[in-house]
Specification:
The protein has 413 residues and is α+β, with helices and mostly antiparallel strands. It contains 16 helices and twelve strands. The protein has a five-stranded antiparallel β-sheet with strand order 5-4-3-6-7, covered by helices on one side. A four-stranded antiparallel β-sheet has the order 1-2-9-8, sandwiched between helices. The chain has a three-stranded mixed β-sheet with strand order 10-11-12, with helices on both faces.
Length: 413
């Protein structure tokens, strides 16, 4: 049985905290007789409290209260150091799956997050803000930014199997300290596994990626993905764990290429959604996917990934499903932008994390660093952050100077 762990590290401008709490959350769910949904809600809240407590001094404590109008009632998590307690008002809560996932946001509903910090030599400090979407991680991210002026990113997860057993639980918290710019983040870490390997020496990191919307995986619809690792043994171990009659896993040594593909395809999916919102057709979508994969390959290869990865499941496969699927939040956000919404209005309407918005900025930084041209991604950035009209962005892409599709192919004459 793997032990629970809480680790932290610091580089100039950035603090990183990560934890694995499978045993802790499994036991808490049993003690409270939690339903599948209540286990996920309680586990996320406890993970969040532990991560925030790790930022405080010894003998200081933090309490998180999620008070919404949903059927689960109030959720409380109280943490000090590496210890945490949790409470859920209605542990029997049940709601149908939402897009194939436990509906944590629906269980909590609309309301407030209330955070109380018990500090040494001072009175307790309490802050609060409205819930973002009731998903807990995004609520904490919003609270930290609005109430404590702390730019941060919080990710929390609890996986519950069909029998109600907690099989995986954990999360991470990345905090930008005063004076930290995006260039600083890009300088120190290219990918999440870079961060993991730097802060947890000796860990055997692995990435699992490909066209795999959770809404379909959870219904045992046939799906294929790729497991990437530096070690063949690690990749094959993950392959053995996840393979079944509805979920096929391939292996790859190109962990970097897989991660780059997984990030950049969200930017191209935003562009695909924008063209849908503008009312364009299949020709435009096919062009975006094809030229999008060219940009992904160009940057990925310049950074040290293998070109073959981008024609596989983590490249072309994931790009197709993200650009075309009704489940894709990046495509949906792009669609709304194409209909005239601003970037922020589109994100508010989607009510989930739209990864492509953040990846678009990072992609441009990397393109500058590796001297790579990314015309589609450049125009997506202009639409998102410079107020450029989507119709103008499409026009500027179309009227560029003519080029050969593949400069390596020979001409007979």
């Amino acid at each position: 049985m793997e032990q629970d762990i809480l680790t932290k590290g610091t580089v100039p401008g950035v603090r990183i905290y990560a934890l694995r709490t499978t045993n802790l959350v499994r036991e808490a769910a049993k003690q409270h007789n939690c339903s599948h949904l209540a286990s996920a809600c309680l586990g996320r809240a406890m993970n969040g409290a532990l991560l925030l407590a790790a930022t405080m001094k010894d003998n200081e404590r933090i309490t998180l209260r999620f008070k919404g109008d949903g059927p689960i009632g109030e959720i409380v998590a109280d943490a000090e150091g590496g210890h945490v307690r949790g409470y859920v008002e209605n542990p029997d809560v049940f709601l149908p799956l939402k897009d194939g996932k436990l509906d944590v946001g629906g269980a909590i509903g609309n309301g407030n997050i209330i955070v109380t910090r018990y500090l040494q030599n001072s009175e307790p400090f309490t802050g609060y803000c409205e819930l973002q979407d009731g998903e807990i991680a995004s609520d904490l991210t919003k609270y930290l930014y609005e109430s404590e002026q702390t730019p941060a990113s919080v990710a929390l997860g609890v996986l519950v199997d069909k029998e109600g057993e907690v099989t995986v639980s954990g999360g991470y918290f990345v905090q930008a300290m005063p004076g930290c710019e995006e260039e600083v983040l890009e300088k120190y870490y290219t990918t999440l596994t870079d961060m993991i390997e730097e802060e947890m020496p000796g860990v055997h990191a692995c990435v699992l990626s490909g066209p795999s919307h959770a809404e379909e995986v959870s219904r045992y619809i046939p799906t294929t993905v790729v497991a990437g690792a530096k070690s063949r043994k690690t990749a094959e171990k993950i392959q053995q764990i996840f393979m079944n009659e509805a979920f096929r896993v391939y292996t790859s040594p190109d962990m970097l290429g897989i991660e780059i593909g997984g990030a950049l395809k969200n930017v191209i999916a935003l562009a695909a959604g924008i063209t849908d919102g503008l009312g364009f057709g299949d020709n435009t979508k096919a062009a975006l996917i094809t030229r999008g994969i060219a940009e992904m390959t160009r940057l990925g290869a310049a950074m040290g990934g293998y070109q073959e990865t981008f024609s596989g499941l983590a490249g072309m496969g994931d790009l197709i499903v993200t650009c075309a699927s009704k489940h894709s939040r990046n495509r949906k956000a792009g669609y709304l932008i194409g209909k005239g919404y601003s970037m922020q209005e589109a994100m508010d309407e989607v009510k989930m994390v739209v990864e492509g918005v953040h990846s678009a900025k990072a992609a441009l930084l990397l393109a500058e660093k590796y001297y790579v041209r990314l015309p589609i991604i450049e125009q997506v950035n202009a639409v998102l952050f410079e107020g450029k009209l989507a119709t103008e962005a499409v026009r500027d892409l179309m009227i560029r100077n003519g080029k050969t599709e593949n400069p390596l192919l020979p001409w007979e004459k």
